[in-house]
Every structure is written in C-alpha cells, then in structure tokens.
Amino acid sequence: MTFLSATLTRVKPSPTIAVTTKAQALKAAGRDVIGLGAGEPDFDTPEHIKDAGLAAITAGKTKYTAVDGIAELKQAICDKFARENDLRYTPDQVSVGSGGKQILYNALMATMNPGDEVLIPAPYWVSYPDMVLLAGGEPRIVSASPESKYKITAEQLDAAITPKTKWFIFNSPSNPTGAGYTHSELKKLTDVLLRHPHVWVMTDDMYEHLSYDGFEFATPAQVEPALYERTLTCNGVSKAYAMTGWRIGYAAGPKMLIDAMRKIQSQSTSNPCTISQWAAVEALNGPQDFLAENNKIFVRRRDLVVHMLSAIDGITCPVPEGAFYVYPSIKGLIGKTTQNGTVIENDEVFATQLLEQTGVAVVFGAAFGLSPNFRVSYATSDEALTEACTRIQTFCASLV
C-alpha cells in the first residue's frame, strides 16, 4: 500500500524554483553565483505601498477577512479593470487569492472533471500543465515557433480544440518569452473562440504593465466583449508593483465561477494575508508613475542582454515586447562539447554545465515546453547582467 497520493506521480516540482534553490545552495557554499532564474523584480516595493501595509498593522487590521478579499480591495480591482481595460465587474465577480498561482489553481480545481482538456500555448509558464494535472484534467500543448515570435496562430488554436476542451490558457506578455500579442493578433484568436462556445478563456495578465517599445496591452474579454461571460481575467500585484512576497493575486469573471473558487479557497487557505490586502489597495489606487520609470530600466536591461547574447555564435535571441525575460535558442550549440568533455545534448545539459562551470543560473527550455532554449530573467542589476552575459559568452566560445 502506497502512502502518498497517486496524483503526485502526474506532476513535477517547479523547475524555476529548483534552479533558484540550487543557485542559493551553491552561493551558500561559497561559489560565485549569478542567479538569472527567478521571475522577481529586484526593485523594492514602493514606499507608499509599504506605508499602507505598516498603517494596517498599526491600525490593528490583522484579523481574518472575507475568504476571497476585503470589500475595499475588491472595489479597487473593479475600478482598475474599468479604468485600464474597459471591463466592468461588480465586487461579487472578483476573487482575491494568495498570489496569482492560487487564483489559477482555484479556477482549475473548481471546474475540471476527468477527461477535460486545457489548451496551453508553449512556451508556457512551468506551472500551467501541472496545475491542470493536479485538478484531474489533461493539458494539451499548442507549440509556437521562433518564426512566429513564440506566438500561436489562430489556425493552430482552431485545430487544437476538441469537444473535450474546457479551457484555453492565455498569457501575454508571456513568461518565459516576453512575447506580447497585438490587438489584431489577439482578435484572430478570439474569433476562433467565438466559434467554440464550450471553451472558456483563462487569461494570465500578470505582466500587463511591463510592456515596451509602444506595445499596447490588450486582454481577451476587452478585445471581444462577447467572450465576457466565459472569461476569467487574472492579474496581480506581484511583478509590476514589486510585491512578489506579499502574495496577492486576483481575478474577475462570471459570478458562478467566482462563487465556486471561493468554496475551494474556503477549504484551503481562507483569506489572503490581511496586511497584504491593504497594501494592494494602495498599489491599485495610489500613484502609478513609478511603473513607467521602472519600465525604462527594464528596457535598458533587456537591450543589454539581447545585444550580448545575440553576439554569441550559435545563439538566437528575439527581442521581447514585455515581461522581464528573454528566451534565446541554442539550436546552434546542440552537439558541441564542453571543455570537460560533456556533450551539449539538450538545453538541460547546457543549463547544468553553465551553472557548474561559470556560476550562472538560468532555466532550461524544456521546463517551458519548447526546446532547445533557455530563459534569462533580466530583473537584476546591469552589473550582474553584464557579468553573467560575459560568462555565457566565454562558456559558449569554449565549446568545440
């Protein structure tokens, strides 16, 4: 008799967390390590947001709240969607969770039945397929190509939909590629979805405010209002507001779905951290000018990394429209050999050898469902990025 759940055999630990953990362990052991694996801004949480958290503590706002969020935060979320996305929701259509991951997980747990399928474009955020598996569903991967700038086409989406398809998960700008779908590209996808009324849309808009070079963000229910009643629009304060550790994610959608998600959350975590909720109210309602300033820094870092990696023979590095990742292809390096005699058979071997020989930690592309690539998070200092890219250049030049 096996003690552990058989469900665990269907999933794997998060590769991005594994890379970060290994890098931290090496650093603790005295190695000179530069971690480019974590999807976390190096900026501090803005002062006015931290002040709101401190004020909540001082005022004694440290008790339980409603399961899926305080009224003030739900209203701030409704106001944000109306102001920025032209989407109208009422507070009873809003769910607040302990991070964006919990919101997505709640939605899947509340809706999946055995045999249900979820369409996931690849490259994808590492947790999407495993959350579907944990919820009892079947992930179906739709692979984009470098030629399409890692964006799937309407024809691919249409061909992938079956009578068993329940959800289509959409993420733009994307983790891990930074690719952003234009309004017209997204409209082609929503046109397909209109022809398949049994398919619901789960958007992950976490990188909405991290958009560059004039790229204009759009979300599916905004582009096609006819999808409003079967779209869960998900977001959070983690990335743009540098609040990863505060753990606040949120979503808005049909009340029936939100009620079901509340039931799941009521029997798992109950309410998100009260102090974090009050800080998130200030994040959404307070000054937003720092977003543009931070984006200028991200663009500079992006351009630095793209320039240095593109200079490497055997690596192709597209310029992303948003987020804070690049997703270079190492197709030209496969089959080469390191100085210690290791053959670069795939991107996992490349990332392992890069970490062991140079101390640079990146995430291998297979973790995101598309190889041979690796992901670099450029949400760290210019100095660290320059040094890391120099080490990558030296490592690649040593391959024979």
Structure explained in plain terms:
This protein is of the alpha/beta class and 400 residues long. It folds into 2 domains: 6-44 and 290-397, Aspartate Aminotransferase, domain 1 (Alpha-Beta Complex); 63-285, Aspartate Aminotransferase, domain 2. The chain contains 13 helices and 12 strands. The chain has helices at residues 15-28, 47-58, 71-85, 100-111, 127-134, 154-160, 183-194, 220-223, 255-266, 274-285, 289-310, 347-358, 382-397, and strands at 34-35, 94-97, 117-122, 138-143, 165-171, 200-204, 231-236, 249-252, 325-326, 360-361, 363-364, 374-377. The strands form 3 sheets. The chain has a 7-stranded mixed beta sheet with strand order 2-8-7-6-5-3-4, sandwiched between helices. Helix 7 (183-194) links the parallel strand 5 (165-171) and strand 6 (200-204). Helix 3 runs parallel beside helix 10 (274-285), helix 4 (100-111) runs parallel beside helix 5 (127-134) and helix 11 (289-310) packs parallel to helix 13. The longest helix is centred in the C-terminal third of the chain and has 22 residues, at 289-310. The chain is globular and about 60 Å long. The model has no long low-confidence stretch (mean pLDDT 96).
Give the helices and strands, then pairings.
Blueprint lengths: L14 H14 L5 E2 L11 H12 L12 H15 L8 E4 L2 H12 L5 E6 L4 H8 L3 E6 L10 H7 L4 E7 L11 H12 L5 E5 L15 H4 L7 E6 L12 E4 L2 H12 L7 H12 L3 H22 L14 E2 L20 H12 L1 E2 L1 E2 L9 E4 L4 H16 L3
Parallel strand pairs: 1-10, 3-4, 3-5, 5-6, 6-7
Antiparallel strand pairs: 2-8, 7-8, 9-12, 11-12
